[in-house]
Automatic annotation (TrEMBL):
Name of the protein in its database record: Uncharacterized protein (TIGR00369 family)
CDD domains on file: PaaI_thioesterase
InterPro entries hit by this protein: HotDog_dom_sf (IPR029069), PAAI_dom (IPR003736), Thioestr_dom (IPR006683)
Residues of the Thioesterase domain: 39-114
Keywords per UniProt: Hydrolase
Organismal lineage: Bacteria, Pseudomonadati, Pseudomonadota, Alphaproteobacteria, Sphingomonadales
Pfam family name, one: 4HBT
UniProt superkingdom: Bacteria
């Protein structure tokens, strides 16, 4: 799961617990001391990243391997400080469209307390077009 992928390692992915074709995902992360700012509180960008990743997994589960979910908009509301330890990011599709979909998600601690909630507008991009554009961009660089 997280092995060999530096983004997953940086984010502290432990495992993808579940995904389903209805557009749901559940991922476990280890919030680390190195991800904290003053007072031992996890920096908000990691929290956003965890929920965003869960929404991407939900979108991939719903739409199959031929799409790349690209976040167009992400809004995160923080309810409580996130501390080092196990955190669970869950996401689900709220409204599905052909090219654009709307997802929601939250982050909980091991006790089930909701620490943050998020909403996202996701572009369902064609995998072949994304790969071709990335290849062209890196060749020209």
């Amino acid at each position: 799961m997280a092995e060999g992928h530096s983004l997953n390692e940086t984010l502290g992915l432990i495992r993808v617990v579940s995904t389903d074709a209805a557009g749901h995902a559940r991922l476990e992360y280890e919030a680390k001391r190195e991800q904290c700012h003053s007072g031992g509180v996890v920096q908000g960008g990691f929290i956003s990243g965890w929920i965003d990743a869960a929404m991407a997994h939900a979108a991939m589960a719903r739409n199959g391997p031929g799409i790349v979910p690209m976040t167009l908009e992400l809004k995160v509301s923080y309810f409580a400080p996130t501390r080092p330890g196990l955190v669970i990011a869950e996401a689900w599709v709220e409204r599905h469209g052909k090219r654009t979909s709307f997802y929601e998600g939250h982050l909980k601690d091991a006790a089930g307390t909701v620490l943050a909630k998020a909403t996202s507008t996701i572009l369902l991009a064609d995998m072949n077009r994304v790969v071709a554009a990335s290849k062209k961009a890196t060749e020209d660089a």
